[in-house]
Structures are given as structure tokens and as C-alpha cells.
Design brief:
By secondary structure, this protein is an all-alpha fold. The protein is about 90% helix and about 0% strand. It has one domain.
């Protein structure tokens, strides 16, 4: 069990003074800014920071290269799609022209048949008229 001792004002004041002096002693014994160990530590930290920055720049450069590659791939894909679309339009246009030409030939053929039928009717009519006379 912990022994309780009575702390009066003077004891508390003495403990406070001792704590302050220990803290002051700690800061006085700390290495100075121009101490070789501190200089080496700062140089090491600066090297770490520089290496970190270099890695960040490398990641950024790689990311930009990837974005550029993606942009180029997207552009190539867009060009390919435009070419395919143009080819499809040309094919559809050629099919439409072929259908129109086929429709014209069919219309010409039907017209020729109608002309032949009319000529046959006219010949039969003329023959009938000739027989009546």
C-alpha cells in the first residue's frame, strides 16, 4: 500500500522548482543546431524529403504518360469508329443506289410489258376492225 505523506505548500513548491530545473537542464543538454549530429540528421531528413519528392514526380510523370496513352488510344478508337461509320454509310448508299437501279429496271420492264400488251390489244382491235369491213 502506498504511503501517504502530507504535502504541504513548501514541499509542493520545492517539487515544482525541481521539475522546472530538470526540464531546463534537459533543454540545456540538448544538442545545438550547429552540432554535427544535428547537421547530419537534418541532411538525412533533407535527403529523405528529396527522394520522396523525386518519387512523387516520377509517379506524376508515369500518370501523365498513362493519360497521354489513354488519350491516344481514345483518339485512335474514335478515328476507327469514324472510318467504320463512313464505310457503313458508303455501303448503305451503294445498296440504296442498287435498289433504285433495280427498281428502275423493273419499272422499265413493266413498262415494256405494258407497251407490248397495248400493242397486242391494238393489233387485235385493228384485226377485228379489218374483219368487219
Amino acid at each position: 500500500m502506498k504511503q501517504l505523506k502530507e504535502n504541504n505548500f513548501s514541499e509542493r513548491q520545492k517539487a515544482s522548482t525541481n521539475a522546472k530545473s530538470a526540464l531546463l537542464q534537459k533543454f540545456k543538454s540538448a544538442p545545438k543546431a550547429d552540432d554535427p549530429a544535428m547537421v547530419a540528421k537534418r541532411a538525412e531528413r533533407a535527403a529523405i524529403v528529396a527522394a520522396r519528392e523525386e518519387r512523387r514526380l516520377e509517379r506524376e510523370r508515369i500518370r501523365e504518360e498513362q493519360l497521354e496513352l489513354e488519350r491516344q488510344e481514345a483518339e485512335a478508337q474514335r478515328i476507327l469508329e469514324e472510318q467504320l461509320k463512313a464505310e457503313e454509310e458508303a455501303r448503305l448508299k451503294a445498296e440504296a443506289e442498287a435498289r433504285k437501279e433495280e427498281d428502275r429496271r423493273l419499272a422499265d420492264h413493266l413498262l415494256a410489258i405494258e407497251v407490248e400488251k397495248k400493242a397486242e390489244r391494238d393489233r387485235r382491235y385493228a384485226a377485228r376492225k379489218a374483219r368487219r369491213r
